[in-house]
Design a protein that fits this description.
Radius of gyration: 18 Å
Largest sheet: none
Distance between the termini: 13 Å
Strand content: under 5%
Number of helices: 4
């Protein structure tokens, strides 16, 4: 199985995955600043657990998926 058979456009696939992970990371870093600036603090504080659960899971899936794909491609002998 070649790399092209795994996905027709792997560069585009990784570009979009990376953008989603960066957006989640930036949002996770900006969230405390909004709370510190007192912008709708009660509403933001009540959403902290679901928000960080969502953004953390997006980052975990990106990192885990990329590691898993790299290991499986290398093990199958596609990438030399």
């Amino acid at each position: 199985m070649t790399a092209e058979e795994l996905h027709p456009d792997p560069i585009s696939r990784w570009k979009h995955r990376r953008r989603m992970a960066y957006a989640a990371l930036v949002a996770s870093l900006l969230y405390p600043l909004l709370v510190l600036m007192n912008i709708a603090t009660d509403a933001l504080v009540s959403l902290a657990w679901p928000f960080y659960g969502l953004t953390g899971s997006v980052l975990a899936v990106y990192i885990g998926g990329s590691v898993w794909e790299t290991i499986s491609i290398t093990k199958d002998g596609i990438r030399q």
